[in-house]
Specification:
mainly beta; 6 strands; 3 helices
Length: 171
């Protein structure tokens, strides 16, 4: 029974929707999306909110991509800004828009990250992201009259992400 559970856990943990696999930055994609523990610039706002506490100076990130060539003008636009305050606190905001008419997804995020020294040259960073998520279809006759949509053309929700990084410096 345990073997079956472990096999199911492996398959479930690796299953995801193809459209949710949005490569936000070239740096993270080049690292095989193994970016969660590094995420130390404004593109890191999308990977681990704790990582931005390790950045040096202000950071702005802009990106535009067409991840699925041949499917109309389906594209992703990203804007991220992160501002460190003092040497231990960082704030960030980001906007991501994915889709094309008649369908779009918008994500607005606000990030706070805090870094503290645990012992000499060892730091713990904690970060929190609050997100507003919206999915929307253009309100045309086929959407309004479709019972699946129930007369609505959009849905929205809130999300909170929490991250942590423990980093040993200059060993």
């Amino acid at each position: 029974m345990i073997k079956v559970f472990i096999i199911l856990l492996i398959f479930i943990s690796t299953a995801f929707a193809a459209f949710e696999n949005l490569d936000i930055s070239a740096r993270s994609t080049g690292m095989g999306n193994a970016y969660t523990s590094i995420a130390d610039d404004s593109s890191g706002l999308f990977y681990n909110p704790a990582g931005v506490a390790f950045q040096n100076g202000k950071s702005v990130y802009l990106s535009y991509a067409k991840p699925y060539w041949g499917i109309g003008n389906l594209s992703t636009g990203v804007l991220g800004i992160s501002l460190p305050l003092k040497n231990f606190l960082c704030f960030g905001v980001d906007l991501m828009i994915f889709g094309e008419d008649p369908y779009t997804e918008k994500t607005y995020s606000f990030i706070v990250a805090y870094k503290m020294q645990v012992v000499e040259k060892q730091f713990l960073s904690l970060g929190v992201t609050a997100k507003s998520l919206t999915k929307e279809l253009v309100a045309n006759d086929s959407v309004i009259n479709n019972p699946y949509f129930g007369g609505r053309n959009s849905a929205s929700g809130l999300s909170i992400d929490v991250g942590a990084i423990y980093r040993i410096m200059d060993v």
